[in-house]
Structures are given as C-alpha cells and as structure tokens.
Amino acid sequence: MSDVERTRVEERLRRAQEVGQLDLAEFDERVRATWAARTRGELERVIADLPEPPLAGSAVAKRSRVFSDTGGGTAMRVLTIIWTCLAVVNTTAWGILALTGIVVHPWPLWLLVPGAALAVLYAFGIGRPQRD
To answer: Three-state SS for 98?
Structure first.
C-alpha cells in the first residue's frame, strides 16, 4: 500500500466532511486511521460506510465563480473591488454633506461611467469564467 492510496482516501474523507457526511472529530479520527492502516483492507474499512459524495451539479455543489482565474478575471476582480470602494466612500461623503445641509452637486453619479465600462467589458466576456 502506498502513500498515494492513503492520500486518495484522505481526499475522499475531506470531501465527505465538506458536504456534511462527517463531523470534524470523526474526520480527524478517520484520517488518523487512514495513515495508520497497514493493509488495503484496513484502508477500505475507513470509507466503507460513507455514501458517494453528491455530484457537482447538486445543491451542495460549490457556488459558481463570478470571475475567471485568467489575467482578465483577476484584473476585473481588482477593478471591481476598487470601483465598489470608491462608490461607497463617495456616496457616503456626499450623503453626509447633503444631510448637514451643504448643497453640493451629486458627484458620485460620475462613478456610473466607469461602472458602466466594467459592466460592458464583463458583458462581452472579459474576465468571465468559461461555461461548462
């Protein structure tokens, strides 16, 4: 029996813990048993009672990504975070000034222009993950 087999069983246990088939204590106990196993039979007994994990398309599947892992996705993620921070800070500052009675032009509206540019880039596929 090899460490590759033990690692495969440990990954199966990790997936079972992630989807709620095992609690953390039982996961820890079974991982210890996995690495202490001397035979394939002992290794099989560690996961024998576990049902197969749900398929990727099920309700327990990971949530879908908004941006891809490519350079375009990273750039869009960073630019979107920067734009969101600017929008929040500017809108808050403008709101405070408006509440204190200082009449000012609603300058946060100017942030709609770069926000629209980001939306158009995303609509054309820049930074969007590929569909399966």
So the answer is: helix
